[in-house]
Amino acid sequence: MIIVADNLHVIDPGIAQALAKDDPEPVRQLVLHCARSGAQAIDINSGPLKRTPEKFAFLVQTVQGAVSLPLLLDTANADALGAGLAVCRSKAIINGFSLEPAKKETILPLAMEHGVDIIGYLLHPDSRVPIEAQEMMALAVELFEAYSRAGLPPERLIIDPVVAPMSWDSGIRHNQAVLSVIRNLPDLLGAPVRTIAGLSNLGSGPVSRQRKIQLECAYLPMLAASGLDMVLMNVLHAETLHLVRVCDALLSQKVFSWTELDPIGIAADP
Amino acid sequence: MIIVADNLHVIDPGIAQALAKDDPEPVRQLVLHCARSGAQAIDINSGPLKRTPEKFAFLVQTVQGAVSLPLLLDTANADALGAGLAVCRSKAIINGFSLEPAKKETILPLAMEHGVDIIGYLLHPDSRVPIEAQEMMALAVELFEAYSRAGLPPERLIIDPVVAPMSWDSGIRHNQAVLSVIRNLPDLLGAPVRTIAGLSNLGSGPVSRQRKIQLECAYLPMLAASGLDMVLMNVLHAETLHLVRVCDALLSQKVFSWTELDPIGIAADP
């Protein structure tokens, strides 16, 4: 699985303050910390930014100045997204669009224009979150069709089935459906479509760090075994991050020998 | 998932010594510890016992004198098994039989005679361990047929796809196949057959406790999401044991609310 850090978001008070002062340093430090921790891509979450296009471009430039990792440009504001894509020299992934008409109309063309990958959320056109697997699968088909109609090659689409907070009444049912959708998408769409899931969603709300990690550590291997390609997560949760590597080893298609597993620390003792 | 302790085995030096002296106390203490830790059933592993039938019956009597949990009578020795079943007042499960001719002939009839559940291993008749899922599925069909031919009702069969040590060259491939077999067995057999897997097998060999637990904690949620019914494990691995409960909550078919998750410690903070 590719590990995408979700740590950089504008609602973080330190980041908000840095942005207000146009100070790149706290953003640089955070992103370097994420990269050193094991992030393989960085999600730049604009949140409810004011003066959005300039600030978002500033974030993109700051991050690509600090690390040479792919960037997920995570904003629903098409102007901000356009400004970010215009300055982005790193590999960019748009995060993302859904069947919401405004998003289809404004976000999808940017993927075409810039020739980049784009994440599509399994949400109803009115932004309602589906609960059952069948609902999600129908949305995936619609999303795939919208994507193809926009002239984009299917291998550039990444589907995000939207992990639900466990605090929702339907959270457990929803997240079970997510597992089955990830497993069945390639058969359903007749194409090997990539998937991404946001692990931090699970523990949204007033949940301690320890319990967030317990939830993440139980659900992550289930996602991995379903065939998840990219995990969007708090890369400063060291336990969860290490588990990604153990899952990758357990699910590897290569023939490992015991000693080859050594580098990821699950084989013979030191 | 039902948690079955694999902690009681005769190769444990303390247990071996207790048996040599016919001293029930170390066995009692171990089993009580397992029960307090969260075991919901106890596997009594006879290992290579001498004077087997008497000693095995002694173990069964000692364990059922200490805890009122179901017992898995884990021996390949039909005489020992018969002696154990004869004295067993707890719910008993035979662990187990395979397509090995001697086991089919001697072990299977005991399940019929005593009207108990029995575990069947997915092993070739010559005891070779299958690697590919298709091989395992073919063995499951044969096992199911052998079981039915012996006149036993299918709902009494529990299939053990035999988790492989990660130290084996084919361990990774084998254990991936195990996940797919557990998921597909009900469809294949056209009946809801229960499954059990031995988690401790993963870390067999010269592996530290920490690494054993890392492997267990990555693989257990995968097994759980595949639909595993019973997990045979070291119940003194507290991290793994807690994870069973979190997995059960994530995969529950009931509609939980956030607060109902409290008792298992994954919901709101104290």
Give a summary of the structure in a few sentences.
The structure is a homodimer of 270-residue chains. Chain A has 270 residues and is α/β, with parallel strands linked by helices.
Description:
The structure is a homodimer of 270-residue chains. By secondary structure, chain A is of the alpha/beta class. The first copy, chain A, is built from ten helices and eight strands. Chain A has an eight-stranded parallel barrel with strand order 1-2-3-4-5-6-7-8, surrounded by four helices. In chain A, helix 2 crosses helix 3, helix 3 (52-66) runs parallel beside helix 4 (78-87) and helix 8 (171-189) runs parallel beside helix 9. Chain A is globular and about 45 Å long. Chain A starts with a strand and ends in a 20-residue tail after the last helix. The relative contact order of chain A is 0.11. Residues 262-270 of chain A have low confidence and may be disordered. The interface between A and B is large, with 42 and 42 residues.
